[in-house]
């Protein structure tokens, strides 16, 4: 026994702990959630039997029947829960969970049928009667106590009810098995389909199968040994070296291969043996956890395989020497797995036999699953190694680390003995195995990265996760296959009470935790019943129960259930569950009431340690959820809900301010899920969530949220934010400016720097669209000051990106514009990827204007990488647009056209009309420059369809009219072409953008040249050249000069 307070061992009759003085009075065991297998076995025709037999005889027959069934249950490790009339209810998984409880239950059910038949032999002969039974088996979750001594073993619920209904639907001598049991038992069960059953109390049909047999649980049948073997080159080499050493020294050696369940010990030994070049005498046996086997049965299995193998001529010559040893073994070990006539004689015979075989070739003897071996078998193996010191015998034992609990020194610390530890596969080999398993799986769907990560390098875990990727487990949860649930639950269930209590609490903290956090949580949990939990200690103070938590963590580390992450100088050592699956199974085993309590205590602990709103909120949210599921809808539950929503909103807004859209979306959606529309706090969560949805391309969801924010019933500032955001998302530019100008005074009066940033940047962007970059600069400068005060990264990035646009399109010369861009990046970029993205785009084009092609493309490479990590939907339009501009300036029209097409497709998908218009105009310009006027016309709306200077911003209108003028002249409409060219020039001259004005002048030069008006063409081209040169736009200036020179030359020719 151990003290419940400190974990110190205590005498069985102790009233107080000798270490800490705590009372040793037994405490009620905690409720626990388990996945168990329930078996119902009922007599058929008991009424007729009672009429045929005297009551005393009937009672004796019934007791014999009960005893026979009980024996079958207990032989397979189950527990008889209760007797109900003539029915027996048995449970497998209470009080002890076994990894193969479902298979055990099926084996017990078959044994019940056999036991009843054996009973019938005597009953028929003596009384002329026969008993007949029917059996139902089902697997699923229950809530129970884990302590049998309290007799609190009542198991009820749907799992039990379905098992009872299956039994009632079974025929005489039949066993009906539920689908969850079949999944948990794996391929060992042979069944025949029965079809869906309509059972009382269930709306949906129940899938059932008739059990025919349970096959031997050979790992090769239960595991995918048919797929190509992956990895383990180092371990195979070490086994090969061990065999070489045995052969060279002619001396026996014991090698114990340790590893957790499923890590691949059996497969490794089989693959190594199959790949041996050296001829060996080989025999293998396996220990089993239950069943009617002799104490040395695994050794008998291995020796039998040795004797059945090919014998060398040398061994045949020594047959007389072997004959006596074989006779002894056949009288006991090889007959029934027992050491008959004695252990001494059996060991002597084994030594003689193995030594004789080893004279011909090395002997390899494998004993698998030694953690289930009895003490006698381990003693015999130990003795064999000692007495075969002059024989080339390699004894390979495979075991889980549980073996060291019984035999701490096994496999090391003695001559001719060594151990190998088999760890999980490295990530690259896990991925390779996943690909192989997916190829042979039934569904062949893509393997989620989470499956590879969750498996933690364990091949069996990975195999099961992939095999059941599309199917639910026995409790309806698709994330954990029933085989893994059972395997890991058995590992956890085998822990001593102190270790189990620590592991339970750790599972509430999550995959990662610290010893100090766990100690504080254990201290809070250890408060006296009926009193508030102890005050949570501030970070850095010693844990009240460090004496129990830290040693328990050390023992859990040895069992590979948790692992220390590093050895920091600080006392608060971090730990991690060895696998997320271990944490998941441990957490699932906790009763919901305990989960709610632990989560609330964890929230208090983390609040005191200032661990962050998101972590605290997560615990509060779980506490609220479980209280609601338990029906505890009271004031305290409501307090948990509102507090969780408040913290989720705050942490989500902070994530959004850091441009972490994925995390912000999860946190804010979590807050909204806890609130009802119109409830206090709903708007504060809905507004930033709408921003996230719009930014990530989920526009309709974002707009729905914005429309739901009322102008009344929430703060004026919140309403103003909603109106502005809705205008930005849905209204034309003019209306956006109106909304910005209308909401700006609201933000100013409230001192809302975020709102002022947003309003001023929208006003500035409208000025940019009108080509008034000088005026826009003033608004952007003020917006940047407000953005710096908000510490909101997206708003800072938007402002700086807008400044970059003005540096590109505005009057600032390229050299000074590039320098200013770089200064802004140095001041604001740094750890802000959004800033580096929004400034990097215009900087790339500015570098291209100066013909720094390597710099421009390097800048674009950085931009693409940043865009991939940030997940802003608009990046799928903006980045290709800027990249296409660079390629166009570089004289690579095909590459530019492909990028413009990609941008247009993304803009169309997002409903970004302004960006779509820009992409289509640039595509048209490329086609016109290449001489494809019909192709260009397909990208532009006709003038009759609208879209001239009225609805379009001035800069865009000038661009569009210039292109239409070129289309008109190509179609022979000279008057229209001249008019449109003049209108484009006039609109452009109203801007302060040398790029817009130069482009309009260049379009006019091309039109006049086509019309044969060489003088006006030369003048317009000269004007474009001057504007491009003033900007530092080298490709544009060169093209304008070429056009001017050509027009002047043609004009001179005409004059002559």
From TrEMBL:
Domain Guanylate cyclase: residue ranges: 37-167
Disordered: region residues: 523-550, 935-955
Domain of life, source organism: Bacteria
Any one annotated GO CC term: cytoplasm
Pfam family, one: Guanylate_cyc
GO annotation, biological process: cyclic nucleotide biosynthetic process; intracellular signal transduction
Protein name, entry field: AAA family ATPase
Alphabetical list of InterPro entries matching this protein: A/G_cyclase (IPR001054), AAA_16 (IPR041664), Nucleotide_cyclase (IPR029787), P-loop_NTPase (IPR027417), TPR-like_helical_dom_sf (IPR011990)
Organism: Streptomyces chumphonensis
A molecular function (GO) term: adenylate cyclase activity
Keyword vocabulary terms for this entry: ATP-binding, Nucleotide-binding
Comp. bias regions, Basic and acidic residues: 528-538
């Amino acid at each position: 026994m151990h003290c419940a307070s400190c974990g110190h061992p205590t005498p069985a009759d102790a009233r107080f702990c000798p270490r800490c003085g705590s009372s040793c009075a037994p405490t009620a065991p905690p409720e626990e959630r388990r996945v168990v297998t329930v078996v119902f076995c009922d007599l058929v025709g008991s009424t007729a039997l009672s009429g045929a037999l005297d009551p005393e005889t009937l009672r004796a027959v019934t007791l014999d029947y009960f005893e026979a069934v009980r024996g079958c249950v207990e032989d397979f490790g189950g527990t008889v829960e209760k007797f109900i009339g003539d029915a027996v209810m048995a449970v497998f998984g209470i009080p002890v969970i076994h990894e193969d409880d479902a298979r055990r239950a099926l084996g017990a059910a078959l044994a019940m049928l056999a036991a009843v038949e054996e009973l019938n032999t005597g009953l028929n002969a003596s009384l002329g009667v026969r008993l007949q039974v029917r059996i139902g088996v089902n697997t699923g979750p229950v809530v129970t106590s884990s302590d049998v001594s309290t007799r609190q073993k009542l198991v009820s619920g749907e799992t039990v009810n379905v098992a009872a209904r299956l039994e009632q639907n079974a025929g005489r001598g039949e066993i009906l098995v539920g689908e969850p049991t079949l999944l948990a038992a794996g391929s060992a069960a042979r069944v025949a389909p029965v079809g869906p059953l309509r059972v009382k109390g269930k709306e949906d049909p129940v899938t059932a199968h008739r059990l025919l047999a349970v096959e031997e649980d050979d790992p090769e049948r239960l595991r995918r040994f048919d797929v190509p073997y992956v990895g383990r080159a180092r371990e195979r080499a070490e086994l090969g070296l061990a065999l070489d050493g045995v052969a060279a020294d002619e001396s026996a050696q014991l090698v114990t291969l340790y590893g957790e369940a499923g890590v691949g010990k059996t497969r490794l030994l089989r693959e190594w043996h199959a790949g041996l070049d050296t001829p060996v005498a080989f025999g293998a046996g396996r220990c089993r956890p239950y069943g009617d086997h002799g104490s040395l049965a695994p050794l008998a299995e291995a020796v039998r395989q040795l004797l059945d193998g090919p014998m060398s001529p040398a061994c045949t010559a020594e047959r007389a020497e072997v004959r006596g040893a074989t006779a002894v073994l056949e009288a006991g070990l090889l007959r029934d797995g027992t050491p008959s006539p004695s252990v001494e004689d059996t060991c002597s015979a084994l030594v003689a036999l193995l030594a004789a075989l080893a004279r011909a070739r090395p002997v390899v003897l494998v004993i698998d699953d030694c953690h289930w071996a009895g003490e006698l078998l381990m003693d015999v193996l130990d003795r064999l190694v000692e007495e075969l010191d002059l024989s080339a015998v390699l004894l390979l034992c495979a075991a889980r680390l549980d073996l060291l609990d019984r035999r701490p020194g096994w496999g090391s610390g003695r001559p001719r003995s060594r151990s190998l530890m088999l760890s999980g596969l490295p990530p690259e080999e896990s991925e390779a195995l996943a690909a192989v398993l997916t190829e042979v799986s039934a569904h062949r769907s893509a393997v989620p990265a989470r499956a590879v990560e969750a498996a933690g390098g364990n091949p069996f875990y990975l195999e099961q996760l992939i095999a059941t990727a599309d199917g639910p487990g026995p409790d309806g949860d698709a994330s954990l296959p029933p085989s893994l649930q059972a395997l890991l639950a058995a590992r956890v269930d085998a822990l001593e009470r102190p270790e189990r209590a620590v592991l339970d609490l750790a599972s509430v903290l999550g995959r990662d935790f610290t010893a100090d956090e766990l100690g504080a949580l254990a201290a809070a949990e250890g408060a006296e019943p009926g009193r508030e939990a102890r005050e949570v200690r501030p970070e850095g103070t010693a844990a009240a129960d460090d004496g129990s938590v830290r040693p328990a963590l050390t023992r859990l580390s040895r069992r590979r259930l948790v692992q220390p992450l590093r050895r920091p100088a600080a006392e608060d050592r971090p730990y991690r569950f060895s696998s997320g699956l271990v944490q998941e199974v441990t957490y699932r085993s906790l009763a919901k009431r305990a989960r709610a309590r632990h989560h609330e205590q964890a929230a208090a602990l983390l609040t005191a340690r200032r661990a962050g709103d998101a972590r605290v909120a997560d615990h509060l949210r779980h506490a609220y959820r479980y209280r609601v599921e338990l029906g505890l809808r009271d004031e305290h539950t409501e307090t948990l809900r509102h507090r969780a929503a408040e913290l989720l909103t705050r942490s989500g807004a902070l994530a959004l301010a850091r441009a972490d859209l994925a995390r912000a979306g999860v946190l804010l959606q979590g807050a909204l899920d806890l609130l009802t529309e119109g409830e206090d706090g709903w708007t504060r969560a809905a507004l930033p969530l709408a921003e996230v949805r719009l930014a990530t391309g989920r526009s309709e969801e974002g707009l729905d949220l914005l429309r739901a924010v009322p102008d009344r019933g929430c703060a004026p500032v919140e309403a103003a934010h909603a109106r502005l955001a809705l205008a930005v998302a849905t209204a034309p530019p003019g209306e956006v400016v109106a909304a910005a100008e209308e909401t700006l005074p609201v933000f100013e009066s409230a001192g809302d720097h975020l709102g002022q940033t947003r309003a001023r940047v929208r006003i500035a962007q409208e000025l940019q669209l009108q080509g008034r970059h000088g005026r826009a600069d003033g608004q952007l400068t003020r917006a940047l000051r407000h953005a710096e005060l908000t510490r909101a990264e997206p708003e800072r990035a938007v402002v700086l990106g807008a400044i970059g646009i003005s540096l590109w399109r505005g009057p600032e010369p390229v050299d000074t514009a590039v320098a200013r861009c770089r200064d802004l990046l140095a001041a604001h970029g740094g750890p802000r990827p959004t800033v580096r993205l929004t400034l990097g785009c215009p900087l790339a084009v500015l570098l291209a204007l100066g013909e720094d092609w390597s710099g421009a493309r390097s800048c674009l490479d950085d931009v693409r990488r940043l865009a991939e990590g940030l997940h802003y939907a608009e990046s799928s339009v903006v980045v290709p647009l800027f990249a296409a501009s660079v390629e166009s300036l570089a004289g690579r029209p095909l590459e530019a056209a492909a990028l413009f097409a990609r941008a247009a497709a993304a803009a169309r998908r997002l409903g970004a009309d302004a960006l779509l218009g820009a992409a289509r105009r640039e595509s048209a310009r490329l086609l016109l420059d290449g001489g494809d006027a019909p192709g260009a016309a397909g990208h532009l709306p006709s003038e009759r369809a609208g879209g001239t200077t009225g609805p379009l911003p001035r800069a865009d209108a000038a661009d569009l009219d210039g292109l239409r003028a070129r289309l008109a002249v190509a179609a022979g409409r000279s008057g229209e072409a001249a008019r449109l060219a003049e209108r484009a020039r006039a609109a452009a001259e109203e801007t302060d953008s040398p790029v817009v004005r130069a482009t309009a002048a260049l379009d006019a030069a091309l039109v006049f040249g086509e019309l044969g008006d060489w003088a006006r063409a030369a003048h317009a081209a000269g004007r474009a050249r001057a504007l491009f040169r003033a900007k530092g736009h080298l490709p544009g200036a060169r093209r304008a000069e070429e056009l001017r020179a050509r027009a002047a030359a043609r004009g001179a020719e005409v004059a002559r």
